[in-house]
Amino acid sequence: MKKRKVLQHITITGIADKGKSVGRTASGEVIFVEDVAPGDVVDVLVLRKKSGVMQGKPVHFHQYSADRVQPFCKHYGVCGGCKWQHLDYAAQLQHKQQVTEDAIQRIAKVKVIDFQNIIGGTETVYYRNKLEFAFSDRRWLTEAEIHMPTEMKYRSALGFHRPGAFDKIVDIEHCWLQPEPSNTIRNTIKAIAMEQGLRFYDVKAHQGLLRNMTLRIATTGEIMLLLSFGEDQPKKIRLFLETIQQRLPDITTICYCINTKVNDYIMDLEMITWYGKGYIEEQLGHVRCKIGPKSFFQTNTRQGQLLYDIALQFADLQGNENVYDLYTGVGSIALYVARHCRQVVGIEEMEAAIEDARENAALNNITNAIFYAGDVKNILTEAFVQQYGKPDVLITDPPRAGMHPDVVQMLLQLEAPKIVYVSCNPATQARDLQMLSAKYEVHKVRPVDMFPHTHHIENVALLKRLREE
């Protein structure tokens, strides 16, 4: 068997995707390393090499980073979330700023006139309004538990998927991502399930009543619980939900669905309201939003408002503009800017999201927002523009993959005077900015940290059309 190579004294210089860090060998080769921090000096075992890029893990630490801190969560390093807990938050922001600058200016070679500093989170824990948990009869066991001489008393778990083990769930006692009563609700529901002898889901056999749970906690104080059952057992479901409602009166609405499919996808299933109005309401600045079981919404409400404030500031609307909002989702950005422009036209692929957008427009008495369902690359055509008018400002907030090349070409054809590009992936945003540079220059860029202790970065860019000479 070929002996794996160990690289000596690698200095870790920055953060990378999925919680890994990056370093370079003396000859300049890049290596991505897990379980380290920028500033560490380590010996690295090379696990694999593909297309000249190496992946590895540390086998010896010569020096620890001065930016290291003690992780605050007992599940750190096991559940796969919040992978940057061991890095001081100020250092996290510094590295996220650098990642964004490198993606746009160094790799894509796009010139930015005003590259502004990242805005950090006002709350670095308990900042999410939505969390999704899984029930499992295959609890992830620690090394100590595996070697215990006696059989574990229980193997049921309610928590997060263990990375790399699709059938194993890490049982979560306390999660620092969502404010109370999140932990109380989750732990109480697990206790009720075990008292009633309900079977937790077996993902390999596709059997078990309790499958998934989603919890939404709004800043308004409203709470939605959504449960996914793997079997249709009305009596057991009824007793379970009645007990939850009795013991957890803080929950304002309870919904559920029956999912007997192989996959966990529930957007195509009927949602049944057991208790309450079937939705909650969230306040995002001056906009009130109805959020149902299938609604997409910014998972960090307070930072979401800051993100939209930056987008609005970059757009610099004067009140008479025709605005396009691509990938509008439930229309949150469109509704946020509506009172500052003459008309806003939102396009979104998911019909359910557009229905939410229209409902939220009515909820806020917004009459100048038009929403259209369909794939942006198919909808945004010359005929569409003739119908709704050419945009004075175009806002785009695509998924992580960025914009389809056909959409980029249509934007170049439209020649809107200003484009505000909101991105959750600076790498794909940089690629799109490079293509748009044929007719646009990037005037401003500002990253926003929506998800502290993770590698995720949101970024807002303002593009202005180049003047013809």
Structure description:
The protein has 469 residues and is an alpha/beta fold. The N and C termini lie far apart (65 Å). It has helices at residues 89-107, 143-146, 182-195, 234-247, 301-315, 332-337, 351-363, 376-379, 382-388, 405-414, 426-436, and strands at 6-15, 21-24, 30-33, 41-50, 53-63, 112-115, 130-136, 157-162, 165-171, 210-217, 223-229, 253-258, 272-275, 280-284, 287-291, 322-326, 343-348, 369-373, 393-396, 418-423, 440-448, 458-465. Helix 1 runs parallel beside helix 11 (426-436) and helix 3 crosses helix 4 (234-247). It has an 8-stranded mixed beta sheet with strand order 6-21-22-20-19-16-17-18, with helices on both faces. Strands 9-8-7-10-11-12-13 form a 7-stranded mixed beta sheet. The chain is built from 11 helices and 22 strands. The longest helix is centred in the first third of the chain and has 19 residues, at 89-107.
